[in-house]
Amino acid sequence: xxxxxxxxxxxxxxxxxxxxxxxxxxxxxxxxxxxxxxxxxxxxxxxxxxxxxxxxxxxxxxxxxxxxxxxxxxxxxxxxxxxxxxxxxxxxxxxxxxxxxxxxxxxxxxxxxxxxxxxxxxxxxxxxxxxxxxxxxxxxxxxxxxxxxxxxxxxxxxxxxxxxxxxxxxxxxxxxxxxxxxxxxxxxxxxxxxxxxxxxxxxxxxxxxxxxxxxxxxxxxxxxxxxxxxxxxxxxxxxxxxxxxxxxxxxxxxxxxxxxxxxxxxxxxxxxxxxxxxxxxxxxxxxxxxxxxxxxxxxxxxxxxxxxxxxxxxxxxxxxxxxxxxxxxxxxxxxxxxxxxxxxxxxxxxxxxxxxxxxxxxxxxxxxxxxxxxxxxxxxxxxxxxxxxxxxxxxxxxxxxxxxxxxxxxxxxxxxxxxxxxxxxxxxxxxxxxxxxxxxxxxxxxxxxxxxxxxxxxxxxxxxxxxxxxxxxxxxxxxxxxxxxxxxxxxxxxxxxxxxxxxxxxxxxxxxxxxxxxxxxxxxxxxxxxxxxxxxxxxxxxxxxxxxxxxxxxxxxxxxxxxxxxxxxxxxxxxxxxxxxxxxxxxxxxxxxxxxxxxxxxxxxxxxxxxxxxxxxxxxxxxxxxxxxxxxxxxxxxxxxxxxxxxxxxxxxxxxxxxxxxxxxxxxxxxxxxxxxxxxxxxxxxxxxxxxxxxxxxxxxxxxxxxxxxxxxxxxxxxxxxxxxxxxxxxxxxxxxxxxxxxxxxxxxxxxxxxxxxxxxxxxxxxxxxxxxxxxxxxxxxxxxxxxxxxxxxxxxxxxxxxxxxxxxxxxxxxxxxxxxxxxxxxxxxxxxxxxxxxxxxxxxxxxxxxxxxxxxxxxxxxxxxxxxx
Length: 870
Prior knowledge:
- The protein is an alpha+beta fold.
- It has 32 helices and 29 strands.
- Strands 14, 15, 16, 17, 18, 19, 20, 21 and 22 form a 9-stranded mixed sheet that branches. A 7-stranded mixed sheet has the order 7-13-12-11-8-9-10, with helices on one face. A 6-stranded mixed sheet has the order 3-2-1-4-5-6.
- Helix 9 links the parallel strand 8 (198-202) and strand 9.
- The longest helix has 29 residues, at 761-789.
């Protein structure tokens, strides 16, 4: 089989279209999408069988992230079994197609015995590919997904060679079986008059009576058929096969893997012929001639080269066995899906239009009711949208407080039918703007702009969540997020991008993705900033790091006054259209946005930070993370904490808590016996010598990450013993890691500490952090001396209250808040300080270091530090 993965990785094809029967979204979002990214694909379309997609969504809902945002998925009509398997990769110059038996699943891409063929198409190829667009249009006619159909037409318009009529008059060598147009009559016409004596066939499943084998005898004169099938998937009845006018025998392939390939080799007095594709040995695949027939796709070889097929044909040269010796109890054959699922109505299309607020739904059959309700859940919130019917579709509009989040959204339609409410099955939402942004190759997500300025720039919760998800995805794919368009090259809200081919609609909505702001072009004019980065005394800042540092003299701009037009475009649109606003007239005064609950926003942001830290600590991330992504990923949670604090959502100490968790992952996270502790050490070990070492230090040793960590940890003043010890211990670990500042010189350190966006960072970095690290070193030394005088006390288990701060030779631990008491080892810091004067003095010095900066306690703190260091 030609590797589907290698086929998808081949570069140069911005559009990829999949046709499949079964679809595994978790597999697709983890493997094929990554392979397509390597191959440069930006627009991804998938069409599959309705029953298979429905089952997959029920199993995987809540775990899907890219569906409806990065790729479009469409289902065929439930009345038809949609069975073709094809991958079409397209570019303006030409393309390549892959046709075979493998579904878009783990087993289809390697678990089963599969078979596929691939070849180039286009003006410069032997196959000009003019047949392809007819096939794409035909299958698109079987789906209710407007987004899928519209994009197929867009692809045809973008690539003119797809619509070019074939030069040759010969029939195409790719045949599509459709309802009312089955494959068998098409193949019979193609090979009209030819006679074959034998048929060798791979098949993944069968019918009961071997109808296709009888057709092969009646049409082409076949007298013997040799079948390779996994017996447990064969529905043949040995008694029925005995009634056929040809001899049927079976051969076996590797019994440990299912035979799922579909292949026919005809041989006889008129030469050889072959078929490769999706059609099994069944009447449904080849012969059914009615509206509920299968959809199948095959590639036909009129005069195949036997040598090219020799490895396959060799399987049929082995021992041939009788049907009764091979066949087991019949299993249910592969038949079209059930026509009904117990629901009166079916939601076939759900789209969020590019305005970002208008939402459309198509229900089949079209209800008589003029109104309906769209219901969707995001996180723990349920939203209801009033929908009105116009013609064959329902339309509604999201209100300002409705946030769709950053994951795939599923919705259902409720329709009042008499006294009852009919509810459709849930369907995913196709987000037109997100899909088009992905298809156009916009590496920069417009939502990243929420990180510009203070706080989240007055952005909606939806935009914030989408920006967080976008950057998180890039980092966990080991990429530095491309935020180049969000740097110095910003336009005013009324400036149109040069060369833009997007037409402005009269009185249309303001598109937030087109709304950018000019914060400062000073750096660009001075030449100190490269594309997508700014420079501070030799430190090039890009990606996440760029947002944590503000260039010298950059003005803060309050974007909240612009929020009404960016986040609630329907207010301008509705007023303009209803009042007939004239060109040049002033728009009506906007109403203030719906207030957002700070508590809810803080909870949502905390959940996002927790999720990111969980992914950051995974061994799979440590195994492959390069230095380029390491510093960015470690800094990202601190950026989120800083923005949350600026919004007033977090208390001052929250930032230190987030930074402490980052440092624990950096230096204390265990990865197994014999492996270095901590994410930082894991990556460092893989880049230990020579040029890799230089690369590692280039990205982590310039002082930027050290500055961010020190500022976040030392800025808030601890109010509890636990917070004090955790902050001081984390600062000590950062200070001891010399690799974080190896390539930085004093001018760089000074510039970074002055420009990091954490307020009061310069004092925290230059005074409080060193004082805390020094005092913590003294405290640890005192505890070690105490342990030598009292051997074994640290390892002795005893009962401790919740929240107790414990010291052990390997480090510090703060007991959780529950249960109320815990039986464990360790030295209770508070208790031992009461009995040991030197530990008490060292602890007081640590408190004094934390209180540095208080005017009334500044001199006292210095005295305590002096005593601690004697």
